[in-house]
Design brief:
It is built from 5 helices and no strands. By secondary structure, the protein is an all-alpha fold. It is globular, with a radius of gyration of 13 Å. It is 58% helix and 0% strand.
Length: 86
Amino acid sequence: MSDYAQAKKLLAEATNCDSKMIADDARIGTFDRWDSLAHLRLVLAIEQQIGRQLDADEAVRIESLSDVAALLASAAPRTVAGMMSG
């Protein structure tokens, strides 16, 4: 699953809706279901997905579906070889 598709799935779960209801350009303020409680659920889901806590600055910078996807991408392993070396 792409980072963007995963971001949409996490937002759908956080807002208790079907991912088909979420526009590709969804942002806080343009997607009614994305309120403060949904944002908290989204942050918790992102933390679980990436395996670490977000700092406060990271949490408040999440304003769009693209921001979520970028955060997921930045936490993803770059290559299989990179995961095996160490």
